Amino acid sequence: MRLDKFLASMQFGSRKEVKMMLHHGRVQIDGTIVKDESLHLEPAKHQILVDGESIPYFEQVTLMLHKPVGYLSANEDPRHPVVTSLLHSPWNRYTFHIAGRLDLDSEGMMILTTDGELVHELIAPKKMHYKTYRVTCDEVIQDLSSLEQGVEIRDGNEQPFVTLPAKVRILSDHQAEIAIREGKFHQVKRMFASIGYTVNRLERIAIGNLSLDPQLAPGEYRVLTENEIQELKS
Ligand code: URA
C-alpha cells in the first residue's frame, strides 16, 4: 500500500494533508524519517510513528466494549454521545461496524469490528446467535414461562410479531436472565411488557458463547483474541 494512502486511511487527513505531514518530517518508519508519499509498504510489518506516536496497523480489528447507559450504538449522532467516541488512538482511527445494537438506556456487551463477514455472521437472521440479557424489573418476577413459548409483541414497524422461544432463568425477586435469538426493536423490553413487567435495567451479558469480560468497567473495551472470535462464531 502507498504510504499516503495508508496515512489517509488512518484518518490523518486528505492525501494532500498527509503529503504536507510527510514533508514536515512528522512520520518515521522503523526509526527513519520518511518524506516520500509514494513509498510502498506493508503497514503491518513496520513500526510507523506519527509525531512520535506509534500507529499499529491490523488488517481486521474486533473489540469487546462495555457500553454504558446514555451512549448511542452508532458511529455518529448530533444529539447523544456515541459508543465509538469511547475509543482512543489507534482504535479511533478504524471504521467499525456495530454487531447488535443496544438501546440508549441499555448497557453491556457490544462487539465492534472492521470485519464485515463477522458482522454478517453475528446478525444474519438465519445464523442468529443467542444474546443473553440480565433484566431488572420494577415488579416482583413470578412466572416467565410464556416467554419460553413465544409471545406476541410489535416489531420496529409496529407490526405484530411472535417471538421465538427464549431461554429464561429467574435470578431473584426483581432479576432474571433471558437469551433470545432475534433482535427486534426493544425486543426484551417488549417481551417483558407483554406479560406485565416493566424493565428498568437491561444489561447484555453474553453474545453466543462469549460473555462480557468482568474486568471491563462501563466505557472500557479491549481487543478480542482469535480464539474469542471463534467462540463468538460457534
Ligand atoms: N432488547 C431491548 O429491549 N433493548 C436492547 O437494548 C436490547 C434488547
Estimate percent helicity: 10-25%
Query: What is the average per-residue confidence, as pLDDT, rounded to a whole number?
Result: 94
Shape: elongated
What kind of sheet is the major sheet? 9 strands, mixed
Contiguous low-pLDDT stretches (5 residues minimum) are none
Question: How would you characterize the overall build of this protein?
Answer:
The chain has helices at 3-9, 15-23, 116-123, 145-149, 187-194, 226-233, and strands at 27-29, 32-33, 48-50, 53-54, 62-67, 97-99, 107-113, 131-137, 152-154, 160-162, 167-170, 175-180, 199-207, 210-211, 221-223. By secondary structure, the chain is an alpha+beta fold. The model has no long low-confidence stretch (mean pLDDT 94). The strands form three sheets. Strands 5, 6, 7, 8, 11, 12, 13, 14 and 15 form a nine-stranded mixed β-sheet that branches. Strands 2-1-3-4 form a four-stranded antiparallel β-sheet, with no helix packed on it. 19% of the residues lie in helices and 27% in strands. The protein is elongated. It folds into three domains: 3-54, Structural Genomics Hypothetical 15.5 Kd Protein In mrcA-pckA Intergenic Region, Chain A (Roll), CATH 3.10.290.10; 62-124 and 212-233, Alpha-Beta Plaits; 131-207, Alpha-L RNA-binding motif (Alpha-Beta Plaits, 2-Layer Sandwich). It has six helices and 15 strands. Residues 102-103, 106, 186-189, 202 line the site of uracil (URA). Uracil is lined by residues 102-103, 106, 186-189, 202.
